[in-house]
Design goal:
The chain has about 270 residues and is an alpha+beta fold. It is built from 5 helices and 10 strands, in the order H-H-H-E-E-E-E-E-E-H-E-E-H-E-E. It has one domain: Sortase (Sortase, Chain: A, Beta Barrel).
Length: about 270
């Protein structure tokens, strides 16, 4: 009898453990798939506002007939302005054509809030694509330093690691970044693996600190280090005065690893 009770307690214990594991697994999968839906929803935001933009553009065209001096805004800029009505922290839209990377870019007062909040300021494991808090708009800082999570469900900046392949780079050499003032295109000149360095480490390339350059020397030093660190030679470079853009995400090749893509603004894009 005592053996029966003992076995029964053992079975009950196993059942409790299994029940807890099932609850945990269901909860995990629920959050996982909810995050996938949230990420995909962020990437399709522009489609949701296109109809409003078309209507506003048609009504505005009447008043613009008598004011030819005002430059016409691109559809992408108008779509962005529509999104900014929902959240003024949306400062741009980032897209790499023919990839899954097409997201609003947000900028907060710190670099932590949008790591785990979406464009609606709701909690989200995937967070948002966001611009470094130290980026200044007037006068404009020299480097758009933009962060995003490396999410294993192929959303946010996970696809950025495809740039480890030279063939992928050749097929996707341009990044589009739109702000309220300009629809810009950037030509990639460096892709590299890195990590977060300890404070006592010397003579290392802390690319994640470079947003504002003090002078031409700082700018040229950053470009030189970025090209030296690149996984392959793109045959491209940047010249002092050209606006830079750096995309950064986590990488698991080392502890606290990082992966970065650096580009310079193109004067012409065809």
């Amino acid at each position: 009898m005592f053996g029966f009770l003992k076995n029964r307690k053992y079975v009950n214990f196993i059942c409790i453990i299994l029940t807890l594991l099932i609850i945990f697994l269901v909860g995990f999968l629920s959050v996982f798939y909810q995050d996938i839906r949230e990420s995909k929803k962020q990437s399709s935001l522009l489609n949701d506002v296109k109809e409003n933009v078309i209507a506003e553009k048609q009504s505005a065209s009447v008043s613009l007939d008598n004011n030819d001096s005002e430059p016409e805004k691109s559809d992408r800029i108008l779509e962005l302005e529509e999104l900014q009505k929902e959240n003024s922290d949306i400062v741009g839209w980032l897209e790499i054509e023919n990839t899954d990377i097409s997201y609003p870019v947000l900028q907060g007062s710190d670099n932590s809030f949008y790591m785990n909040h979406n464009y609606k300021k709701e909690y989200s494991v995937s967070g948002s694509i966001f611009l470094d808090k130290n980026f200044l708009w007037n006068p404009m800082s020299c480097n758009f330093l933009i962060y995003g999570h490396n999410i294993k469900n192929s959303t946010m900046f996970q696809k950025l690691l495809d740039y480890k392949s030279y063939e992928f780079y050749k097929e996707h050499p341009v990044i589009r970044f739109t702000t309220s003032n300009e629809d810009m295109y950037f030509e990639i000149f460096s892709v590299f693996e890195s990590r977060v360095y300890y404070t006592n480490e010397q003579n290392v390339f802390r690319y994640y600190y470079f947003v504002n350059c003090e002078n031409e020397q700082d700018y040229n030093e950053f470009v030189k280090n970025a090209k030296s660190a690149s996984l392959y030679d793109t045959g491209k470079t940047a010249t002092y005065g050209e606006q830079l853009l750096t995309l950064s995400t986590c990488s698991y090749h080392v502890k606290d690893g990082r992966f970065a893509v650096v580009a310079r603004k193109m004067l012409d894009h065809f």
